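Help needed: design a sequence for this.
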C-alpha cells in the first residue's frame, strides 16, 4: 500500500489486553514531539461516555461495517466480541501518510499481529503487559464501563492474549506510568531513526 504521494510511512502498533493501559501510553507517545498520527479504528459498538465519532473511532452500524468488509476497505478487521467488530480502514493509513506522518495503532492483540504481518519490516509491534492479572482486573473495575460478566470475559480473553507476547518486537510492563511512558517513547524514537 503506497499512496500516490510516495511517502512510505512506518507503523507503530501498540497492543495489549483490555485494561493494561495501552491507550494511556499511546496518548503519552502522541504527546512526544515525534512525526506520528493516531490511526482511528472503525468499530460497530456504541460510543462510551466522552467518545467522539471521527476522533476516537469511526462508529459504524454492523451493516455499514459488513458492507466495508465486502468492498475490501479494511487492512484488517475482527469480530472481537459477538456483534462487536473492529478494524483498520485503508483510507485511514492514506490520510496519515498524505500528511507525511507515521501511523500509531491502538489495537487488540489479534489486530496487532495482523497489522505486523501487513506492514512487515515497516512495523514496530509493542505489547503492553499489565504487572499481573489481578492489577488488570482492578483497572477494569475502576473503569466502571463494564458489568461483572463483561469484566470476567475480558480477563479470560486477556489471559489468552498474553500467550501471544512472543509475536511482538518489544514488551513493556506497564507497572509505573512514568517509566513505561519513557520506555515507549525511547523505543519508538529509535525505530524511526
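Sure. Designed sequence:
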Amino acid at each position: 500500500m503506497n499512496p500516490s504521494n510516495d511517502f512510505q510511512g512506518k507503523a507503530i502498533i501498540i497492543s495489549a489486553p483490555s485494561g493494561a493501559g495501552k491507550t494511556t501510553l499511546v496518548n503519552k507517545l502522541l504527546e512526544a514531539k515525534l512525526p506520528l498520527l493516531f490511526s482511528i479504528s472503525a468499530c460497530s459498538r456504541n460510543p462510551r461516555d466522552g467518545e467522539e465519532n471521527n476522533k476516537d473511532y469511526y462508529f459504524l452500524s454492523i451493516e455499514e461495517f459488513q458492507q466495508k468488509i465486502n468492498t475490501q476497505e479494511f487492512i484488517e478487521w475482527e469480530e472481537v466480541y459477538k456483534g462487536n467488530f473492529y478494524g483498520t480502514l485503508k483510507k485511514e493509513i492514506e490520510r496519515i501518510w498524505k500528511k507525511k506522518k507515521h501511523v500509531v495503532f491502538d489495537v487488540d492483540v489479534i489486530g496487532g499481529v495482523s497489522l505486523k504481518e501487513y506492514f512487515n519490516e515497516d512495523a514496530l509491534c509493542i505489547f503492553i503487559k499489565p504487572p499481573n492479572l489481578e492489577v488488570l482486573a482492578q483497572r477494569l473495575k475502576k473503569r466502571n464501563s463494564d458489568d461483572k460478566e463483561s469484566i470476567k470475559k475480558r480477563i479470560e480473553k486477556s489471559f489468552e492474549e498474553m500467550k501471544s507476547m512472543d509475536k511482538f518486537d518489544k514488551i513493556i510492563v506497564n507497572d509505573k506510568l512514568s517509566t513505561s511512558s519513557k520506555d515507549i517513547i525511547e523505543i519508538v524514537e529509535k525505530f524511526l531513526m
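The chain has one domain: 11-188.
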